[in-house]
Amino acid sequence: MAYAAPFALVAALALSGCVQPGARARGVDEDETKKPRVTKDLESARELDQAGVHAFKTGHYADAIRLFRAAYRKGAPSSELWNIARCDERLDDGEAAAQAIEEYLAQRDLSPTERGDAERELRALSSRPSLLTITTVPSGAVVVVDGKQTVGPTPLTVEIAAGSHGISIHHDGFITENRPLTARFGRAVIVSLDLTRPTR
Questions:
Q1: Contact by Cβ (8 Å): 71, 45
Q2: Rg of the chain taking only CA atoms, in angstroms
Q3: pLDDT at position 60, please?
Q4: What distance in Å separates the CA atoms of residue 186 and residue 200, rounded to the nearest whole number?
Q5: What does the mean pLDDT of the chain come to?
Q6: d(C-alpha 110, C-alpha 139), whole Å
Q7: Residue 152's pLDDT is what?
Q8: Is 2.60.40.10 the CATH classification of the domain at 130-194?
Q9: Tens digit of pLDDT for each residue in 54-101?
């Protein structure tokens, strides 16, 4: 995903006057990012945007998200939503990134190229594989994923494709456990089970 340059700048990133990482920019309060977009204050939006760029470049992605969101609320263009998605990706939060891209795609001011890039990025986020980790007590169980792929023994970690899956966990002397699970946006999926013996 490409990073959108600050809306007020064309050729270069000018970072003078930016807040320091972790500091609160002028005009941002705790509820700022929850307010609806109602009035334009482009001077304040520009300042917030530039502070967001600084926070992004210094690795303070959560701060950058708050600043880009506040800039958007004050009238900055839709590219702020793209920037928020980029920050979410750096924070390894694919679901939040996808939500930001969906919000971006709902805007009416996107060019066909911008819309196409965003749609491709959303598909890529949605299809990220996840790591499935399974632990059992006792250990040593064999796992069948989707009725065909056998892995094990537990504890184990295996990559699974995005989507719905079924797992079956077998251990001699214990009841077989069958579980559905869903892998989304590359998030880790963790299954931890205490296996039980059959009743006599």
A1: yes
A2: 23
A3: 97
A4: 42
A5: 84
A6: 53
A7: 82
A8: yes
A9: 999 999 999 999 999 999 999 999 999 999 999 999 998 999 999 999
Among the listed residues 97, 58, 43, 13, the one whose alpha carbon sits nearest the alpha carbon of residue 23 = 58
Length of the chain (residues)? 200
Helix (H) or strand (E) holding 65: helix 61-73
**What per-residue confidence (pLDDT) applies to 74?**
93
The tokens describing 55, both together, are: 């926070």
- Tokens 């990559």 found at: 159
121, β-bridge pairs: none
Calpha distance 35→72 (Å, rounded): 11
Q: Label the pairing between strands 130-137 and 189-194.
A: parallel
pTM as predicted: 0.67
Q: Which residues of the chain have pLDDT under 50?
A: 7-33
Q: Are strands 189-194 and 177-183 parallel, antiparallel or unpaired?
A: unpaired
User: Would you kindly state where each structural domain of the chain is located, as residue ranges?
Assistant: 32-126, 130-194
How many alpha carbons fall within 13 Å on the CB side of residue 184? 8
What distance in Å separates the CA atoms of residue 65 and residue 20, rounded to the nearest whole number?
A: 15
Distance CA(184)–CA(149), nearest Å, equals: 20
Alpha carbon distance 27, 34 (integer Å): 14
Long-range contacts of range 107-110, CB-CB < 8 Å, 24 or more positions apart? 107/78, 107/81, 109/77, 109/78, 110/78
Architecture label for domain 32-126 = Alpha Horseshoe (1.25)
